[in-house]
């Protein structure tokens, strides 16, 4: 599964928007249908089975899914900056508008059919993080402001503050390919991924020849034995965790990786909890307002155990992460 993202425009209108924020906040992070669909299988993932996550967004270009995203408040979607990477130079010269690149679909389960709940939005404003061009592939976050209201769709909750002790695992829904350079599925798939500590992440990155000093506000998730991962088309999608009340909270944005589900290689995710001030500055959204239901101080903090099978050392893979390329 794979890539892309957009922004919103609230800063001076936050008081007008507040009632809608409060209304949606009472339901943020609540999936539809069954309480749990847990499985250890995007690559190696499983079909969610029905329309489950009202906050899941698909970025559409030429009637195809290019990236994922997550609704985090009224008219506001968070995605990956690299979904716009190939367009930034032209946009800086005034040759195109980033707002014209994608449309955003909400209410998606089966993208190949016309579902009555689906709604397609044009984008009013795109806000790519101002440090992304200098620091890429990090600072890989973008905000999209949709042109019309999103009353019908509940957002995912934001963390209350920066998360120092990440939980054991998280879930990533998406519409990306089911294998490297494979076909895109019609339906949303989901994968459960282990979340690794920064030292394990840096050790993995060191084997790829990437600059460890540039690693910033990101984390690794996946399986050291491979087999389950996000892939092309999943970029920008949410890595979501559950708090003690079972409410879904946005922890990560699918950023980059090395092929898909390769042994010894983990995926890299932008840590949304480190960008709460930036999100509030650019959109006017405050986690404390949006997440009235999110009262826990922190999510579960148990660490993943290392796999008993250690993969053989890999020859240095491509230095440039493959997942940040938009096909």
From TrEMBL:
Protein's name according to its UniProt entry: Peptidase S1 domain-containing protein
SUPFAM superfamilies in the record: Trypsin-like serine proteases (SSF50494)
Single Gene Ontology BP annotation: proteolysis
Peptidase S1 domain sequence ranges: 42-284
Record's keyword terms, sorted: Disulfide bond, Hydrolase, Protease, Secreted, Serine protease, Signal
UniProt xrefs under Pfam families: Trypsin (PF00089)
Xref: PANTHER family: SRCR DOMAIN-CONTAINING PROTEIN, TRYPSIN-RELATED
Matching InterPro entries: Peptidase_S1_PA (IPR009003), Peptidase_S1_PA_chymotrypsin (IPR043504), Peptidase_S1A (IPR001314), Serine_Proteases_S1 (IPR050127), Trypsin_dom (IPR001254), TRYPSIN_HIS (IPR018114), TRYPSIN_SER (IPR033116)
Annotated signal peptide: 1-19
Source organism per UniProt: Callosobruchus maculatus (Southern cowpea weevil)
